[in-house]
Amino acid sequence: MTLFIQQFFNGLSLGGVYCLAAIGLTLVFGVLRIPNLAHGALYMVGAYLTYFFLTSAGVPYILAIALAALVLAGIGIGMERVVFHPLRNAPHTHHMIAAAGAMFFLHSLVQAIWGADFRRMESPITGRVEILGTQVSWQRVTIVITAVVVLIALTWFIKKTVHGQSIEAVEQDRVGASLVGINPNRVSMLTFGLAAALVAVAAGLVAPINLIYPTMGDVIMVKVFAIIILGGLGSIPGAIVGGFTLGLAEAMATTYVSAVAGEVIAFVVLILVLAIRPTGLLTKAVQR
Amino acid sequence: MLMQVRGLSKTFGGLHAVEDVSFDIAEGEITAIIGPNGAGKSTLFNLITGFYRPTAGSVTFKAKDITGHPAHRTAQAGVARTFQTTKLFEHSSIAENVLAGCAAGSRSTLIDAVFRTPRHRREEKASMDKTLELLEFTGILEFKDEIAANVPHEVQKRAAVALALATEPELLLLDEPAAGITEDETARFGQLIRQIVARGVTVGLVEHKMSLIMSLADSILVLDQGRRIAWGTPEEVRSDPRVIEAYLGAGSQGSTSQEDGIQERTPGQGA
Amino acid sequence: GDGEGGTITIGVTGPQSGGGALYGENVEAGIRLAIDELNEQGVTIDGEEYTVEMRALDDEYQPNAAATNAQRLVEQDDASVVFVPHAGGIHAAQEINTSRSEFLIGAYSSDRQIVERDNELTFMIPPTFASYSEPFIELFQDQGAERLGLLATASEYGQQWTTMMTQDWEGAGGEVLSNNNFDYGAVSDFASAVASALSEEPDVILVGGPSQTTALVIEEARDQGYEGGFMIMDQAKFEEMELFTDPENLNNSAGPKPVAEFDDPGTDELVERFAEEITEERPLTAETSLNFQAVALVVKAMEVAGTHEDPTAIREALPEAATEVDDVFRVSGFPDVVTDEGLLISDTLEGAHRDSEGNYEYFPVEIE
Amino acid sequence: MKLTFSIRGVGALLVAAALLFAPLILAEQNYLLRVLITGITYAIAVYGLNIILGFTGQLSLAHGGFFGIGVYTMGLLTTDYDWSFWSALLAAIVLTTVVGFLAGLLALRTREAYFAIFTMALGLIIYMVISRWEDVTHAYSGVLGVKLPEDIGPLDFSEPATYYYLLLVFLAAAAYVTYTLRVSNVGRRLLAIRTSEDLASSIGINVGLNKQLAFTASAGFAGLGGALFASAEGFIGPNSSSIDLTFELLMFLLVGGVATVMGPIVGTLLVLMLFEAFQDFQAYRFILLGPVIIALVIYAPQGLIGRLNQLTFYWKRRRAAAQKTAAGAPEQNSPADPHDEKTEVR
Amino acid sequence: MLEVRDLCAGYDTVDVLHNVNITAEAGRLTLVLGANGSGKSTLFRTISGLVRGRSGSITFEDKSISKLSSNRIVRAGIAHAPEGRHLFPQLSVEKNLTLGNYARRSSKSELKELLTRVFDLFPILQEKRSQAAGSLSGGQQQMVAIGRALMSDPKLLILDEPSMGLAPMVTEQVLQAVAEVNSEGTGVLLAEQNAQAALGFAHYGYVLAEGRVVLSGAASDLQNDPEVQKAYLGV
Ligand SMILES: Nc1ncnc2c1ncn2[C@@H]1O[C@H](COP(=O)(O)OP(=O)(O)OP(=O)(O)O)[C@@H](O)[C@H]1O
Ligand SMILES: Nc1ncnc2c1ncn2[C@@H]1O[C@H](COP(=O)(O)OP(=O)(O)OP(=O)(O)O)[C@@H](O)[C@H]1O
Ligand SMILES: CC(C)C[C@H](N)C(=O)O
Ligand SMILES: [Mg+2]
Ligand SMILES: [Mg+2]
């Protein structure tokens, strides 16, 4: 039973990690419909930036994350301008390949700057808390709480603010959007900037429980794509459900089946869900 | 009767988009369907052609029950349609569009194509001939190499008809074929429809342009809020107070007067 | 020497980008350091002076890319020796090195299959990992350990280690618990796998993958309250792990001996040069030191054979060359013998045990 | 009509001639021949990807996996089970086709992004099975000594050039099938589906069935490519079924030109040669290659062959227009509506 | 208010408009007639910035707008209900409408007023306010498109065949409503196939043929022009 509870919390924190990493992608892929394969690379750059501010520039942890988010937002915007904006009328496959090009570029660039070494980042959030007889680190608790808070704030932002709605409008009809006075370019940039900032926060929080290295984003990215599809594209509640489902499924499969099962479970769940509901768990009413 | 529709219904959530509609389409005639916006006309077409599954009711075509058959089977059985927002293969040329219609019905397989069997060559030739004939017939031959997305509205509408005809249907359902085209053109479109009937294709027509309806239709089905409120000859329908109230409005006389611009129709065999 | 006579190209194909980039960098560092030293000393073959050069291509750890690169190095750069630091690449290169092209493979992988293929143009640089099995088991069983947990990385090499250890541990009368191996590089959070392994209450756990991730796995286990021992596969290095986790977490573990602890004549100098010329951010490890030795060995073999172009002759000269290599190149268990199979045997190889106080003890390991 | 055909015909002939004489030109550069050989096996798989993506518009990310199934069927059957090359080749095609068919039943229920991610998951599962099912696939240890084709009469396939020509035959077949698709009713049906499934089914095209067939055939080609790859390489590992491979295949296709006949081979060889050329920049080559890839996609979104076809098409149009200037025939042009999402295919 | 001078415009390689001159006065209803493909929509798209003009000038309230992007043009006070509608199909009718006010950022009460006006005009939309716009009937979608343009309370309203797909009764209602909006002071630029009815409301009209203005004049003059009568009035 303690094993179960322990794994439950492990799954929960893993789910939190997934959710945090998924948020930006939900915006960019789910809402703007750009399958940004470089999202994982942005996550990685976010981790390096946090690391840089923390160690080389010596600023405090929270500030380091904030600065990294700021810089990464700039990078995200640059990426939108240089890579995706020229492709706005091209099919999504082209976005994918261009994003892959951007991903290669970022991997190489980071390796050129920081080398291929593994790095470890210390978080000031230390110690563990005992919940139901199991030990959970504060860092993990922080991740889960941040994930939930950010997701709620974002849902609110998208649904309730004019800005949020403009993102949806641009996704659905660029011409229509510009005809009501929305600047589609600005919205795209805003979305990319926001997505990048969020993924930097995710990376900054997650980095201390893992390592920093140039390909660290690859693993998480595939899972994150799975999550937002599992939940239903563009659905933020879907991303929450998807993220925590996969986190828990992985923890449980690892415990009660095998480690290999833990690694594949995400994809098996995805396939099962889509086989039954081809448009994901929580989908909007109308398909285009 | 070429087609019999009985008690057809469709609900979306709580909304009865089409409710218990029955009517017939007689062979060789033009059956028009009119009604206010949102009356369920397009939905009715979607039900007949298998794009939606009816919640109740039946559709019989050539004495065979086709209720709920998927769209492609309905099309193969001989029911073609156009869409309200004109749908074409936008990035292909007009000729390629019509060729696609021919290809849809062709029997040849990849094996035929790979080995260039006589059947394949025969079909290729036939498709080409048919395409040119249909473009000529619909009067858009000169646009054959234009990309569909770039030709004027009215050419698109005609191309959509040619594409539908390429599948060699017995029944052609047209959803607002004359929307957005000039009066002048509308009249010529009326002629085209008449020629289609003359080819032996039965036509079902949804349209808001009463000039067209009144001059062409052999019988008219009137829908309002999903229900049938009238079904009969143009004369019957025109004078039906419920139709006037729900659809035509008091100014309806004005629109029918435009009938003059259109040739006298050939009398149908009666509804 | 100036090497007016020409150049000898040592080919390398390894991961320079992607997940294996660091590993590839370390290998290349060893080769580069050796080459610099060799050029300093001068290389004379058949009376002519040569400059040695390294030409390295990126294969992203992919077997077929490695083979293509090797062929390219041989054809375009006239390399007669190509170093390949991963089992897959070595196997793929072995498909062509005696037929479509001719070149000697400097195989840096501890997978024994490499020398079992009767490929006449291969020599295997590191000790086979099978060498560690017996001493590790003895060490922990002497301490009373019975239950072995499995928590290694799920790469080829990890799986083979695990299979070997499972057999040997059971052979020695111990109990092997369920296999919780997972891919260290593909899992975002180790906590679950560690928790599963711990739930069976092992006395000792087999871990191992890249040092850094291994350190994290060990740390996670300690955090979850595990107090038993660790057997650490030879890929992970104590000297690196110490930088990634509180060294106390590593207490009560056995693994390969840190390079810096070897008493070979060249060790100290190489440690110093590594820090100076490569990086101070990470310690010198076996990836670097073993390849360093191997380059010296193979160039010496060229001198002995009197040719730098004939791979067969070079291969045949290896055993003799092993005895003649300069002391600076002897750093971490320099081979005394090169077997016909292509194994490099050193009788000074040792393993390390970090006891519960955090002190290291070394024990002999016999290469098999 | 004739004119365009001949321009394209000449282009195709040039490529064919280059491929035919490559072994003679590359006599001293075996490694480039090796790159070509690998490239051709990939290109065959790319032709497969082209069927599903180019002709029905569905992005499959399972093709690396299908390729892997071909690789391992060939690899395992000719080693552990000692089958002959030819029977293993047949088995590989059959197996991938069957797997493709079964996968299609589920995958094709989804569309667009969902289809892409569904197939990506499928590809990853295939990869996991291959890389973890030790007892059967030998996992990361890989498979050694995959057989080359048995000699046929005087043809000795252990000679790289001979094997190369054998591959060329398969490649030509794949290209020919694609060509036939482009100009036949079967291809028209698929292209119709790609543009609008609703419209396609309204004219009687069985969308589900056609997509299913396309996906199945597409998987079969990937398997064929994989099987040939395994034999050409001799040693195989799980890498040859990875998701990275899928993206490489996709990149080859997009650079060459989706839905074109020559795109797959031109794109594949071009990118591979580009990769080789950039090797000199070592680890940092992607600092250059990344932007190069992005630029290719941005400036030739229809791919190189697609772009060339478009140019010949314009040229033909302009001539036609010039011939009847008097009539003031409207000119062709590409869609300018910012909402147009798909690029032209011809 | 709106001055189009010597405008040439087109797509990639086709020229559609040739030296078009058009003026839309404030508070008046200006009608553009023309056969299919004569360039009406292209003209409107160029004015609202969806298509870039090649030469010539467009000024609105004495400021050049030919270089502005369409979202800036909306802010300047021009609303365009385009051909093809360009709604946001997955958003609710109400969201579509409120987004129509995006450029304006009206206060809550103003927004409510504008919404009421649209709902008064098209009562069915009130009923369907929370339904996704993409699931409406064709005519209902057309109503949303017009309504959305009205929501920005523009100075100049450009309507491209607003009656397309509308039932005859509604067509009249819509034209009536357009006239009403116009009489409240909003300038209107209208393309409409139902020339008969439209000319009745319009002040001034232009006839376009093959991208050129071939005729212009007061609506009443056009109504009596034999050419117009033949081509557009079906007389
Ligand atoms: N997919 C759907 N989901 C929900 N409601 C729908 C859907 N499709 C149609 N409706 C509703 O059903 C009703 C009938 O729509 P339909 O498109 O059949 O009308 P119509 O008679 O063709 O009108 P129009 O003349 O405007 O084209 C409308 O109220 C519409 O909102
Ligand atoms: N996106 C486009 N690309 C190329 N040509 C186009 C495009 N859109 C329209 N055209 C062409 O421009 C010309 C003018 O079209 P436009 O749509 O402006 O005419 P219109 O008067 O609005 O006609 P309609 O009554 O059919 O709406 C036509 O010949 C048309 O084929
Ligand atoms: C420890 C190393 C010598 C093993 C190496 N990672 C390999 O691929 O075989
Ligand atoms: Mg309708
Ligand atoms: Mg228009």
Classify the fold: give the CATH topology of chain D. Answer: ABC transporter involved in vitamin B12 uptake, BtuC
Basic shape of chain E: globular
The major pleated sheet of chain D works out as:
none
What's the tally of helices of chain D?
14
CATH class wording of chain D? Mainly Alpha
Number of helices of chain E: 10
- Strand residues, percent of chain E: 25-35%
Strand-pairing-aware structural class of chain D? mainly alpha
Task: Tell me what portion of residues of chain D adopts beta-strand conformation.
Answer: under 5%
Q: Can you count the beta strands of chain D?
A: 0
Count of individual domains of chain D: 1
- Oligomeric state of the chains? heteropentamer
Distance between the amino and carboxyl termini of chain E: 33 Å
Overall, the morphology of chain D is: globular
Describe it for me?
Chain B has 11 helices and 10 strands. Chain B is an alpha/beta fold. Chain B folds into 2 domains: 1-78 and 169-271, Rossmann fold; 90-168, no CATH class. Chain B has a 6-stranded mixed β-sheet, sandwiched between helices. In chain B, strands 2-1-4-5 form a 4-stranded antiparallel β-sheet, with helices on one face. The model of chain B is unreliable at 253-271 (pLDDT under 50). In chain C, α5 links the parallel β7 and β8. Chain D is built from 14 helices and no strands. In chain D, α2 runs parallel beside α7 and α3 (63-79) packs parallel to α5 (112-132). Chain D is globular, with a radius of gyration of 21 Å. The chains are: A mainly alpha (288), B alpha/beta (271), C alpha/beta (368), D mainly alpha (346), E alpha/beta (235). Chains in contact: A-C, A-D, A-E, B-D, B-E, C-D, D-E. Chains A and D meet through α4, α9 and α11 of A and α5, α11 and α13 of D. The site of one magnesium ion has 4 residues of chain B, from α1.
SSE arrangement:
The complex is a heteropentamer of chains A (288), B (271), C (368), D (346) and E (235).
Chain A: H1 2-31, H2 39-56, H3 61-84, H4 92-114, E1 128-131, E2 134-137, H5 138-160, H6 162-172, H7 174-179, H8 184-206, H9 216-231, H10 236-256, H11 259-276
Antiparallel strand pairs in A: 1-2
Helix pairs in contact in A: 1-5, 1-8, 1-9, 1-10, 2-3, 2-4, 2-8, 2-9, 3-8, 5-6, 6-8, 9-10, 9-11, 10-11
Chain B: E1 3-12, E2 15-25, E3 30-34, H1 41-48, E4 56-61, E5 64-65, H2 71-77, E6 79-81, H3 94-105, H4 110-115, H5 118-138, H6 153-165, E7 171-175, H7 183-198, E8 202-206, H8 210-216, E9 219-224, E10 227-232, H9 234-239, H10 241-248, H11 252-256
Parallel strand pairs in B: 3-8, 3-9, 6-7, 7-8
Antiparallel strand pairs in B: 1-2, 1-4, 4-5, 9-10
Helix pairs in contact in B: 3-5, 3-6, 5-6, 7-8
Chain E: E1 2-11, E2 14-24, E3 29-34, H1 40-47, E4 53-60, E5 63-64, H2 70-76, E6 78-81, H3 93-100, H4 108-121, H5 123-127, H6 138-150, E7 156-160, H7 168-183, E8 187-191, H8 195-201, E9 204-209, E10 212-218, H9 219-224, H10 226-232
Parallel strand pairs in E: 3-8, 3-9, 6-7, 7-8
Antiparallel strand pairs in E: 1-2, 1-4, 4-5, 9-10
The structure holds adenosine-5'-triphosphate (ATP) (2 copies), leucine and magnesium ion (MG) (2 copies).
Residues 41-42, 84, 175 of chain B line the site of one magnesium ion.
Subcellular location (chain D): Cell membrane
Region (Disordered) (chain D): 324-346
Keywords (chain D): Cell membrane, Membrane, Transmembrane, Transmembrane helix
